Amino acid sequence: MGIDRSSFGKRQLRRLAFLANVVVACVLLAWVAVPRAEPRVFPERIPVRFWHMWSGEWKIVIDKIVMRFNASQNRYEVVALSVPGGSADQKFLMAVTGGDPPDVMAQWNQVIPAWAESGLLVPLDTLMQPAEWAELQRSAYPVALKIGSYAGHLYGLTTGINVFACYYRPEHLEAVGAQAFPDSLEGLMALADRLTRFDDAHRITRMGFMPAGFNMYAPIFGGGFFMDGRLSLNTPRNLRALTFLSESRQKYGFENVLKFESSLNTGGFATEWPFISGQYSVAVDGQWRVEQLAKYAPELRYQTAPIPAPQGGKPLAGFSNGNFMIIPKGARQVAGAYEFIKFWSGVDNPERAAEFYTWGGWLPLSPRITMTAPYQAYVRKYPQFETFLNMLSSENIQPTPPVPFQVLLTDRIIRAEEGAIRGSGSPLQAISTLEADVAREIARRKRFGL
Amino acid sequence: MKRSYLGYWFISPWLVGFLALTVLPFFISIYLSFCRYDVVSPPVFIGVQNYAELFSNDPLFWKSLQNTLLYAVFAVPLGIATAFGLALLLNLELRGMSVYRTLFFLPHIVPTVATSVVFMWILNPQIGLMNSVLGLVGVAGPAWLSDPRWAMRTLILMSLWGVGGSVITYLAGLKDIPISLYEAARSDGAGAFARALHITLPMMTPVIFFNLIMGIIGAFQYFTQAYIMTQGGPQDSTLFYALYLFYRSWRYLDMGYASAMAWILFVVVTLTTLVVFKTHRKWVHYGD
Questions:
Q1: Mind listing the domains of chain A with CATH numbers?
Q2: Which member of B124, B140, B233 has the closest CB to residue A418?
């Protein structure tokens, strides 16, 4: 059966014409509805294409920084593009593979070791003058360099370090007669018991404090996952940390804690933080919450303190990550990209960059920025921020180990913690499994010639 | 001949897309499954190492395969039974039946992502609707998605939410059964149960067979709900095969390894489908 042209009468033609009109109307509608790229402000300048993953309130801050850079320039224009965080890494990889990468990208995912190993990133230290590099090494906070380094090179320059400390509600502490924030982890756990509230069905309605994060507590217990240049997973101190995390839940009942945590509204919005609604009396979180609390809960009374060390543990310890800037291999405007990185991070002008750090509530790259007048004014305005600054210089702050299988390692560490804190296995079993999983991956990589 | 050229010309946009974006990657992935490939560097041929690694040295591969099989074994028959049962009810001649049919079909056209997000709230152990309702009758509901003992069962039960699509096919099948068969059975003295067992069920076997095949293929490719609601957790209890494949490819940049996984999945699905096809002559009736 084919198309019989003779059967095409006027009626069919009218129908076809109608359909064609509908298609044309749809195409026109789509053309109007699809947003077009904003026109460039300085089309005569060299464009530096900048990708980042911020959106909403954060994007406004980033746009302000970009505007400042563009206003300070007559050679380059940074053209910013907010890429959805969930697929940013894939888009970046596709862009690099396709030979059309951005010139610079702001990242916070665990990408440096893997991407550096694959030769995707430009070592930033090779773009610096020797004196500039030496000065950065001398002056930067140790953790800032650790976050961006791999195999002896600096691939990412931090524009905001994250460290984590306790936020606590003084009125909750006062209500149970606590005079001050405890100076030991054991004291904090005892206080947490007094702060925790239950309903008639023995369900938790307010959690005094619940420690979480194996990567956070391993350094606090004097351990960590990367010692003397190599992975160290199954160590007595790490085991002690994992046991502590497990036992902290066990005393309230694994399922009870699980149900409480599942009930918390932990969406992406700043106002959804359970600490604000009083569901936690003491909560561990990053320094950016200071800025958010000032903006969204200005009436809230709160204080900050480092997570206290347990007996035999280390003070001012914990996990750290951050935002860092990378330049992909194949970028067309490497010089322009580096110019922008310097401008934002404050390598060449700490005074100017200090303001940017305060806009986002970010911790700076080096004490040179911390000591500037704008930054000091910010700390005076938000004294709670000082806790985080004091932690920055600590050698006990540890980022994720710089191994090329960083993402897999993090997944396995989370899995080990999950196993221990749910009570489905002992902490020793969990840490042994973690060690075996990672050893298997290392062996596999060797076999594959990686 | 000219007419067929015209046809090809009309379908050429789809044809080009199909060849370039489906057929070509399909064949390239065979080669990649024998390579070490991280997307950004050129693939390096490593023989059967990816396959050897998967079978002998990757507990998560087996775990994800086991999870997927478990899901298929329970979700597919449960889905068939529920959809068939609903279709029987919706086939009754009652007032307002078209409204009920619409209501049962609606969930099928709601996007999976939206459904998943809504279910995350419904199944919230402390403030969710499900446990609140159970609480009214004195039952303390579990942590549906956060408890490793419950997460898989929850996803299996949740799969029933979208049975509306199959219900429509069963309804169409039921409408297709000649009335004369029932009349003849009735005149021979057959009761309602006997009619259902000896007429309805055999006449519906082609539709059941179709839904079984589609269900098996769908179960082996189960991804979206697990990706959104549990990310494979807690403790890998909902780490489905397709989800692990995705993690391996885009999270760990192990494209060669993931390609090998994809081909194993292809073989498993093909073999399972073939086995079901082999048996269908014994239980599917085409009315001839």
A1: 46-162+321-394 (3.40.190.10), 165-319+400-447 (3.40.190.10)
A2: B233
